[in-house]
Request: fold
Amino acid sequence: MKVLVAVKRVIDYNVKVRVKADGSAVETANVKFSMNPFDEIAIEEAVRLKEAGIATEVIAVSLGITAAQETLRTALAMGADRAIHVVTDLELQPLAVAKALKVIAAREQPGLIILGKQAIDDDANQTGQMLAALLNWAQGTFASKVVIADGTATVTREVDGGSETLALTLPAVITTDLRLNEPRYASLPNIMKAKKKPITAMTPEDLGVDLAPRLRTIKVTEPDKRQAGVKVPDVAALVDLLTNQARVI
Amino acid sequence: MASLVIAEIVDGILKPTTLNAVTAALQLGDAVDVLVAGHEIQTAAAAAARIAGIRTVLVLDAAPLAHDLVENLTPPLVALARRYSHVLAPATTQGKNLLPRIAALLDVAQISEIVAIQGPDVFVRPIYAGNVLATIQSTDAIKIITVRTTAFEATAAEGGSAAIEAVTAGDDAGLSRFVGQNLAKSERPELTGARVVISGGRGLQSGENFKLLETLADKLGGAVGASRAAVDAGYVPNDYQVGQTGKIVAPELYIAVGISGAIQHLAGMKDSKVIVAINKDEDAPIFQVADYGLVADLFKAVPELTDELDRGR
Ligand SMILES: Cc1cc2nc3c(=O)[nH]c(=O)nc-3n(C[C@H](O)[C@H](O)[C@H](O)COP(=O)(O)OP(=O)(O)OC[C@H]3O[C@@H](n4cnc5c(N)ncnc54)[C@H](O)[C@@H]3O)c2cc1C
Ligand SMILES: Nc1ncnc2c1ncn2[C@@H]1O[C@H](COP(=O)(O)O)[C@@H](O)[C@H]1O
Reply:
């Protein structure tokens, strides 16, 4: 069984994001980018499936500008076998990404597609669900445990009230939650080896999909900053302020 | 045109998050219908019909819809959605699981976690863990929206008398099967709706020590939450997590105990009315958003706080 994994290049989660002065977009110049943290978990899960003899090949896919290649190299260094890069300068929204992944899935015929539950830039949390819908496959979103056996993926999902377990007919789509696994660091030898692994570049035209955005950003702003309040000397003073000033207890 | 709100139902009970989504739908100005989908959901349907200000309650009741299997829910919902200009659901794990699936089959975008409505096609939503607010305009005919519940007041749960109408459900798609669930049972209020939330972080050092927070929470009628570090360390279950990738809360009073204040945590609680931080590190970033900061060892301060409250009442 082939496993397809979608990985996105995003502003690193440690960066304090700033808005451009004209409010048109977020500042991306001189900012560190890395693989979306949930996608590292997705790659890790796929590589473990290969190590367990369940997956035969792990294919990483990314859509985006030329620099998305770096993200694919990271995926290859973590253990993916090969990569596909859909090169485009367009602003990519989840529906567009899902449509492109659908065409790639039709060509590659994977038994499983793993995505992150959410990209930490757009915080959309949509692409996996949309892809599953377009393919008419089952979906296991927010996965914290995945067991593959006998044509079924048994997926434990994190839900607001706790967790639930579903049995999904393969092929299926899974999106990762933080506790699914702890992604490995790529070792130096594996980073060297990754340089020789193939990345196939293609264009949206090659896939025959329309990636045009459906949502137009009118402006971006920074929310009002919360002012730091006061330091209180002790518990008694805290209780007094909460009772008589803030009046919340 | 009218709006459709997809109600949140867990174990046959209508969840209050539905009321926040109804408020957002009512702001759009047109009639609002509420859809109740699942299996054996008469109680939830009756409760939905009492929500103030809505027109009709649509009921989609069939065995394959039990446990919200989205593979079975999506086909009838796609058909229904075509009758509306807007389809909304609370941005809970249920709403997030389902709405993108409907949107994709309608070939429209989905708009996640809106916090404000500026017109029938203009919405504000947080991105980058809430560090940026984007104002966006949809070009699609049908808007499929999840609503951040803390950004919209709840509509009155009583006072309405909407007509109840059954709609036809489809078959079992045969793609997915419910195996089991492990839902937290608690006497305390739910995290997302609680008036007071006490959250603990890595500073708590163990699950056992969370009892300190539970005692305090019970004194204040509050809920207990946690940082991701506390959840990852296994001190408390995943449904306690507050933050960018956990729950979003905005209580009257949020008390962060032994939490450093990473942006991913702040994303989930910085709209709380009053924030208190208890941390032994005076430089912890949590103090930059706290109205009242107490630099202290939590193992001393929290029991003291509980005692002090005992004395006060
Ligand atoms: C993609 C992604 C998503 C994430 N999503 C979330 C999320 O949704 N929610 C979330 O919370 N985090 C999230 N995180 C993790 C986040 O970055 C931080 O690692 C996490 O919030 C830290 O938790 P903490 O404050 O409990 O632990 P720490 O940062 O270790 O802080 C512990 C604090 O406790 C204090 N302390 C220790 N002992 C005592 C004592 N005896 N008395 C008083 N104070 C004490 C310390 O001074 C310190 O400030 C995410 C990270 C990533 C990469
Ligand atoms: N441009 C992209 N290239 C590859 N994968 C993507 C891209 N955008 C989104 N994804 C995948 O979809 C997941 C969810 O993204 P989103 O729906 O945008 O929150 C991510 O974690 C990725 O796995």
Notes: Chain A touches chain B through 79 residues (CB under 8 Å).
